[in-house]
Design a protein that fits this description.
The protein has 283 residues and is α/β, with parallel strands linked by helices. The protein has a single domain, classed as NAD(P)-binding Rossmann-like Domain (Rossmann fold, 3-Layer(aba) Sandwich), CATH 3.40.50.720. 51% of the residues lie in helices and 14% in strands. It has ten helices and seven strands. The protein has a seven-stranded parallel sheet with strand order 3-2-1-4-5-6-7, with helices on both faces. It binds NADPH dihydro-nicotinamide-adenine-dinucleotide phosphate (NDP). Residues 35-41, 59-61, 64, 86-88, 113-116, 136, 162, 164, 209, 211-212, 214, 216-217 line the site of NADPH dihydro-nicotinamide-adenine-dinucleotide phosphate.
Length: 283
């Protein structure tokens, strides 16, 4: 009985703890944000700006990054820089990190959000694409985090990894994408243990998102899924809050968390629910 009571008390405490986000803690922090030119990354750039952060934005398209930078400055960012980089090239993470540290004099948040373009369809046997996607969606995250760790240890900073429900529960039409997101969970959850065991005060937040209304996601999933997409600006805020409160994991929408727990209970039932959420005839 005492154990049950302690468990429930800890659960309630954890729920209460989640709401202690104070936007003022973001002011003046130094953020490196990837995939910042569009979608959720762009919205994160605007939230960090409203809260007064210094930001280095990166993605491939320079002209778009410049526009996002201008908007960030209007919204109140302390300083904004951008660096175009293609994360399919193994040399880019190190170069981007050096640029960020040189411009901001250190780092408090490394926000890993970019993804490579990938089709939303049945597995077509393109192993080369999977290899390329692993480089963009996974290996570049590992390389960026590795380059950032020494500076994050100095600042007691945070790594924020943007993942997906497809990185917790496998879903159809996303074989390679899902694999890269599962890989992120494996790598960063293991690294979180190791940092804690070494008493290194760097937090790692894995963000688990459902379907979000970014242009890319809507375009890809149109006619193929029976689900409503949620607003990118809210997803972006949930990610920012997860990082700022140093949560282990952040779920948006919130009910994905109980869904992940329940997934193991009746696996065949959940397989049926998942498959029924997709329009196979149009794929
Ligand atoms: P978008 O496609 O809208 O944006 C992707 C970003 O990554 C862009 O800024 C793009 O900019 C950049 N990018 C693409 N290719 C590369 C590359 N090779 N090198 C460097 N940067 C690149 O994605 P979302 O906003 O929809 O997704 C953001 C994150 O949220 C991802 O991690 C995704 O997995 C996750 N997520 C999204 C969901 C959704 O429904 N939208 C659902 C679950 C998770 P550029 O083209 O200029 O390079």
């Amino acid at each position: 009985k005492a154990l049950w009571a302690a468990g429930i008390a800890a659960g309630l405490l954890a729920l209460f703890w989640r709401d202690t986000f104070n936007p003022e803690t973001i002011s003046g922090t130094r953020v490196l944000l990837t995939g910042a030119s569009a979608g959720i990354g762009e919205q994160m750039a605007y939230h960090y700006s409203r809260f007064g952060a210094e930001i280095v934005l990166t993605a491939r398209r320079e002209a778009v990054l410049q526009k996002v930078m201008e908007r960030c400055l209007q919204l109140g960012a302390k300083k904004v820089f951008y660096i175009p980089a293609d994360m399919s090239s193994p040399a880019e993470p190190e170069r981007v990190m050096q640029f960020a540290v040189q411009k901001m004099g250190g780092l408090d948040y490394l926000v890993l959000n970019h993804i490579g373009v990938t089709p939303f369809q049945m597995w077509d046997g393109d192993v080369e694409h999977t290899r390329w996607l692993l480089q963009v969606n996974f290996l570049s995250y590992v390389a960026l985090a590795t380059a950032a760790l020494p500076v994050l240890m100095e600042s007691k900073g945070s790594v924020v990894v943007v993942s997906s429900i497809s990185g917790k529960i496998a879903t159809p039409f996303a074989t390679s994408y899902s694999a890269t997101k599962f890989a992120l969970d494996g790598f960063f959850s293991s690294l979180r243990h190791e940092l804690a065991m070494q008493k290194k005060d760097v937090s790692i937040t894995l963000c688990v998102l459902g379907l979000i209304d970014t242009e890319t996601a809507l375009e890809k999933t149109r006619g193929l899924v029976y689900m409503d997409a949620l607003p990118a600006t809210e997803a972006a805020l949930a990610i920012l809050r997860g990082g700022a409160t140093r949560a282990r994991e952040a779920f948006y929408p919130w009910w994905l968390e109980p869904l992940c727990y329940m997934r193991g209970w009746f696996p065949s039932h959940w397989d049926w629910v998942i498959q029924s959420s997709y329009n196979y005839t149009s794929a």
